[in-house]
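Hi R.,

Here's the chain you asked about this morning:
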Amino acid sequence: MLLNRDEASMEGVEGANGARIQLAEGELLHLLNPQALVAFRGVPKLREDRFMDLKGMYRKRRLIRSDLSGPSEMILSLPAGYHLKTMELTEGTNLLFDIRSILFYEEGISMKSVLLKIKNMLVTRDFLKMKFTGQGALGILSRGPLFEMKLEPDVPVYVDTRCLVAYPEDAKIDLCVYGNHLASQHMNYQWEIRGKGTVLMQTGTTEAELEAEQPNDGLVKRVLREVIPFGGVFIK
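And here is the predicted structure, written out as tokens:
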């Protein structure tokens, strides 16, 4: 599979983000959002749409996926402000993703659901992650560039819950805040992650989100958010 990365993040024109993908003969791509396909060059039979399983329907909010074979070429549209990164999975990879972050995956990769811990479900309002294993390319959507950070068993990595994209299934992960008293009151929930391998995170918190976190409320509410433990989480 050949991805034209120069076209994967066309900035400056709202809604114009896109990517060009070329598939060689024998290659097969599972596109989880068929509506992203704006142009296709190839024999018509090289596209086959199929119903997703129930878990995929629920998590992706889609009924159908498109299976696209080569030789072919296609143009995909991306949501405004999003980037597309391809990641090559190898045997032994055990990363967990939110399926909403996945645009496509190649044949040779399998996907299954993993249930989260109860306490993590309650705070994140999410109860499933998707595990991708095998060999092939994974197309990841993110707000802003993606960064990796290496994990260690003894020294934790703290990642904002809004920014974590993927982490190893066997990593130890818990919800927390960190830092001194004032820092822990003010911050959003963090994932405390220990283990081996790497975590993947997006860095594109939007201006709208930043403004939403600083609403035009009265002085009393703003002070309470700062001084009450988890005030920024519970006082809206």
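One quick note: The mean pLDDT is 78.

Cheers,
M.
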